[in-house]
Amino acid sequence: QKEVEQDPGPLSVPEGAIVSLNCTYSNSAFQYFMWYRQYSRKGPELLMYTYSSGNKEDGRFTAQVDKSSKYISLFIRDSQPSDSATYLCAMNLIYSNYQLIWGAGTKLIIKP
Amino acid sequence: DVKVTQSSRYLVKRTGEKVFLECVQDMDHENMFWYRQDPGLGLRLIYFSYDVKMKEKGDIPEGYSVSREKKERFSLILESASTNQTSMYLCASIPRLAVNTGELFFGEGSRLTVL
């Protein structure tokens, strides 16, 4: 079993829809949770990060962490075609020498 | 803006060839990383370096070596390329003080095909 599970998709939704992207993990010691976005033929870029449980909002994006269920989510409101990308979750332990544990990534397609 | 530059975007090599992948960052970051990315497997860490001439093995170091002679440059070397090393290779950097945010800055990747 992988430490971090993420459905690879593709997930195809119409423009304007609310998108929910999810990851589950097995190590209860993970403290920091990140979402990276990767456009085709580009490197990943950090979208959001959260520490411990709770929600964090940034514009149309909301990151949610539920440590009791070992589940994290990224919600995208009012989705746009420009949101079409692969979304990777990543997490790490404190004092981990930056060694992130990555999900496999979910490919998201927003249809105009 | 932070810039991480990978010198070769696309390479085609033959089995047994020695391959060099170069990465340069311009923001004076202490830490640099090499990942490979394969469909369904996500990013897997090959090596990382936290200082000049320092290196640590990641999860899949076999068949690879690295060199960090200058702070801004981190090279990945495939001593004898094999077909199972066909992949996308991503270089990344992060400043030492950003450990908690995990904000890695990535290059655009080098897609290597080994025939």
Q: What are the salient characteristics of this protein?
A:
heterodimer, A: 112 residues, mainly beta, Immunoglobulin-like, five-stranded antiparallel sheet, B: 115 residues, seven-stranded mixed sheet, four-stranded antiparallel sheet
Structure characterization notes:
The complex is a heterodimer of chains A (112) and B (115). Chain A has one domain: Immunoglobulin-like (Sandwich), CATH 2.60.40. Chain A contains no helices and eleven strands. With 112 residues, chain A is mainly beta. In chain A, 0% of the residues lie in helices and 54% in strands. In chain A, β7 and β8 (71-76) form a beta hairpin. In chain A, strands 2, 4, 5, 9, 10 and 11 form a six-stranded mixed sheet that branches. Chain A has a five-stranded antiparallel sheet with strand order 1-3-8-7-6, with no helix packed on it. Chain B has 115 residues and is mostly beta strands. Chain B has a single domain (4-114), classed as Immunoglobulins (Immunoglobulin-like), CATH 2.60.40.10. In chain B, 0% of the residues lie in helices and 52% in strands. Chain B has no helices and eleven strands. Chain B has strands at residues 4-6, 10-13, 19-25, 31-38, 42-49, 56-57, 64-70, 73-78, 87-94, 105-106, 110-114. The termini of chain B are far apart. Classes of the chains: A mainly beta (112), B mainly beta (115). Chains A and B meet through β4, β5 and β9 of A and β5 and β9 of B.
